[in-house]
Design brief:
- With 82 residues, the chain is mostly helical.
- 68% of the residues lie in helices and 0% in strands.
- Helix 3 runs antiparallel to helix 4 (62-73).
- The longest helix has 22 residues, at 30-51.
Length: 82
């Protein structure tokens, strides 16, 4: 994590993660997907909230909101995939 704070991760990492989640959607039940999505997005939002505002309290930046939306979009599985 310290390395990622000093040097932004390669965009390919996000692309790989998106493909990984989409692949999982093909193997998991709807309930399992929702459990994974809820847990992951809760932790991601907590991190974004801690990073924003004054002394880590406050707003999530627009850039962070955009990233959260992108992360959540990975869970949009094609119909009939589960």
């Amino acid at each position: 994590i310290e390395r990622w704070l000093a040097q932004k991760p390669d965009p390919k990492l996000l692309t790989a993660w998106m493909h990984y989640v989409q692949g999982l959607c093909e193997k998991l039940t709807d309930k399992e997907i929702e459990t994974l999505r809820t847990g992951l997005m809760s932790r991601a939002r907590s991190i974004a909230e801690a990073a924003g505002g004054f002394l880590g309290l406050g707003r999530i930046s627009q850039k962070e909101k955009d990233m959260l939306q992108m992360l959540e979009s990975a869970f949009s599985c094609p119909p009939g995939s589960t």
